[in-house]
Design brief:
7 helices; seven-stranded mixed sheet; four-stranded antiparallel sheet; 27% helix; 249 residues; alpha/beta
Length: 249
């Protein structure tokens, strides 16, 4: 859901190997079921949430711009014996015929829209695609660790693959405080089971962060009501930098 076509190769594979540090599966499922209507997941990626929901017979569709992420999602859906309806669109260009009881954006994916104008447009597009009384759920975070380590290379994650090889991720972040955007350069290194480097890929991405009151105002301007936010993500209390917003059309 970003204007950067970066979710390819090792980046797309590593995304599937590294789930978020909290279990949000039950959190969104409970709210989708309570809304009693079709749901739309923005930034559905490789189907981490979408496919289990389809297996549970929930009426959920997805939106994902990356062709490689889409390919992985459809492969996983076929293996799970479900049919995944995933629209290849960007959030700020959302244009679908249906209306939804729930639109949700997990793992802070909304923040990949680094243009403030595009972010505002996306919120309006979501509003247009909600049925009357429908709910929007967005998780956001303030990247305190990145803000405190501006432009320093740090080792990120070590992800094992099924064949015994390893993907090693390191990254450096450059913070633009005036724009509330940080740009991250990530290095993905593939090592075989003997520890020999086989491939290196570089990936750049930008992420915008929001203060709580700021995002509340953006939702109001986009036409939402009953706006609420908490410091809870995935049904449990997380660090203060994590926020969950719920708004109603």
């Amino acid at each position: 859901m970003t204007s950067q076509h970066g979710y390819r190769g090792l980046v797309a594979e590593a995304y599937d190997l590294h789930p978020p540090p909290y279990d949000d599966h039950a959190f969104y499922r409970e709210r989708i079921e309570a809304a009693d209507g079709p749901a739309l997941e923005i930034g559905s990626g490789t189907g981490r949430l979408l496919i289990p929901y389809l297996q549970a017979s929930l009426h959920v569709e997805g939106v994902e711009p990356s062709d490689e992420m889409l390919a992985i999602c459809h492969e996983k859906a076929a293996a799970a014996d479900v049919v995944a309806t995933v629209h290849q669109q960007y959030a700020q260009e959302l244009n679908l015929p249906g209306r939804y009881a729930t639109i949700y954006i997990p793992v802070s994916s909304f923040q990949l829209i680094d243009s403030l104008e595009d972010a505002r447009t996306a919120l309006v597009r979501f509003h247009q695609h909600l049925a009357p009384g429908g709910q929007l759920l967005i998780s956001l975070f303030i990247p305190q660790e990145e803000l405190d380590s501006n432009n320093e290379w740090r080792l990120g994650r070590r992800l094992p693959r099924e064949d015994g090889s390893i993907i090693l991720i390191s990254h450096a972040t450059r913070v633009h405080h005036d724009r509330q955007v940080f740009r991250t350069t990530s290095k993905y290194e593939l090592f075989d089971r003997e520890g020999l480097l086989q491939r290196t890929e570089l990936h750049s991405s930008s992420l915008r962060w929001y203060e709580r009151a700021q995002f509340h105002t953006m939702l109001e301007v986009a036409g939402y009501r009953e706006i609420a936010s908490t410091g809870e993500v995935a049904g449990g209390t997380g660090p203060d930098r994590l926020m969950m917003f719920r708004a109603v059309r």
